[in-house]
What does this fold into?
Amino acid sequence: MEYNLYSKDSAYPCEVTIDDENGRYMIRKADTSGEVFNSVEDLTTWIRGNWKEEDFRSRKQYHYLLEVLEEMESRADTGQ
It folds into this structure.
């Protein structure tokens, strides 16, 4: 899954990549730097701690991303 969020601070979107098959969990921030994580849980924890809905042009997109991440975490917890 790749998901883009449009930051108020950048012309380039922030990008969230979750690739369970290849074990890739990454984000690209508004300043175009990135972070790499070991799991969807680690990625979600980082997003919750570092990004706020006010950082993005669409609060709805931000909340949708959090819903998707929570669903993926719960699937990972149940082993589905």
Q: What stands out?
A: DSSP finds two helices and four strands in the chain. The mean pLDDT is 92. Strands lie at 2-5, 14-19, 24-28, 34-37. The first strand starts at residue 2 and ends at 5.
